């Protein structure tokens, strides 16, 4: 187990439905980094943009995205993470992929689909929470709109970090900043959240503000509204000390989720 985790968040401007260009741009950025870190995270639907109309999706490209993630993980020695529209057994999912250097991967399907924007009409809900492990850290990945639903992120799974990948609109930026801090405090965990920038193919503007927050709700590192990436090292000793001195999770109500 390692107390230190080196995270890198890529706040990219995603070119609409242009998988090849988006992956090539990320290749150029990653090639210019000496130490990629332990965990590299990209925004929600980082290769296509947040596509609600599944008729626009080229299903064959999902294998290209997975292979790119596997290649990048092997090249950097890092775990590579982000979401992509995923077609499986007749259904589309907004699927988070965590890909390891040996080529293996785990996935989480977005539970809370953005019904206001039509995502619920075109995608299938996920039904299971996921914990991935990176350098001994237990990390729970969630996707964008999941942020608004604290019951789903409840820390009864004994994780160390919540990881959000998002295409969060600029006009709701205040909610983004407030809710991320709340999730860190109520779950006594680190929160790492990456959001895209730029305007997508439906004219929705995104403002970034990717950030890493400690269990006290304090922002350790953050980005502004420009395309950029940040590197942040987090230490589990702070987490362990806080949970020992102020063990609020043990006082939480006990309940089970029904899917």
TL;DR of this structure?
The protein has five helices and 14 strands.
Going by CATH, the homologous superfamily would be Carbon-nitrogen hydrolase
Helix content: 10-25%
CATH architecture: 4-Layer Sandwich
Mean pLDDT: 96
Q: What does the largest sheet look like?
A: 6 strands, mixed
Elements, N to C (H/E): EHEHEEEHEEEHEEEEEEH
Query: Could you say which structural class the secondary elements and strand pairing correspond to?
Result: alpha/beta
What's the CATH first level? Answer: Alpha Beta
Shape: globular
Number of helices: 5
Tell me the number of structural domains: 1
Strand content: 25-35%
Radius of gyration: 17 Å
Please report the total strand number as a whole number: 14
Beginning-to-end CA distance, first to last residue: 33 Å
Which fold name fills CATH's third level, the topology?
A: Nitrilase/N-carbamoyl-D-aminoacid amidohydrolase
């Amino acid at each position: 187990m390692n107390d230190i985790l080196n995270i890198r968040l890529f706040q990219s401007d995603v070119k609409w439905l242009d998988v090849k260009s988006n992956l090539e741009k990320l290749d150029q950025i990653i090639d210019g980094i000496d130490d990629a870190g332990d965990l590299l995270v990209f925004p929600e639907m980082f290769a296509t943009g947040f596509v609600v109309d599944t008729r626009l999706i080229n299903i064959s490209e999902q294998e290209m995205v997975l292979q790119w993630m596997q290649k990048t993980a092997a090249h950097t020695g890092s775990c590579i993470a982000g979401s992509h529209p995923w077609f499986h057994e007749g259904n589309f999912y907004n699927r988070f992929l965590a890909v390891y250097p040996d080529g293996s991967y785990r996935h989480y399907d977005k539970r809370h689909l953005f019904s206001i924007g039509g995502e619920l009409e075109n995608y299938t809900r996920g039904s299971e929470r996921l914990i991935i492990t990176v350098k001994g850290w237990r990390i729970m990945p969630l996707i964008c709109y999941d942020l608004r639903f604290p019951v789903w992120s409840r820390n009864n799974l004994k994780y160390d970090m919540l990881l959000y990948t998002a295409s969060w609109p600029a006009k709701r930026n205040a909610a983004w900043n407030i809710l991320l801090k709340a999730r860190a405090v109520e779950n006594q965990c680190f929160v790492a959240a990456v959001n895209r920038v730029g305007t997508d193919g439906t004219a929705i503007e995104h403002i970034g503000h990717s950030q890493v927050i400690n269990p006290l709700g304090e922002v350790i590192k953050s980005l502004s509204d420009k395309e950029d990436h940040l590197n942040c090292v987090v230490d589990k000793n702070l987490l362990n000390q806080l949970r020992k001195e102020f063990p609020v999770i043990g006082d939480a109500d006990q309940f089970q989720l029904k899917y």
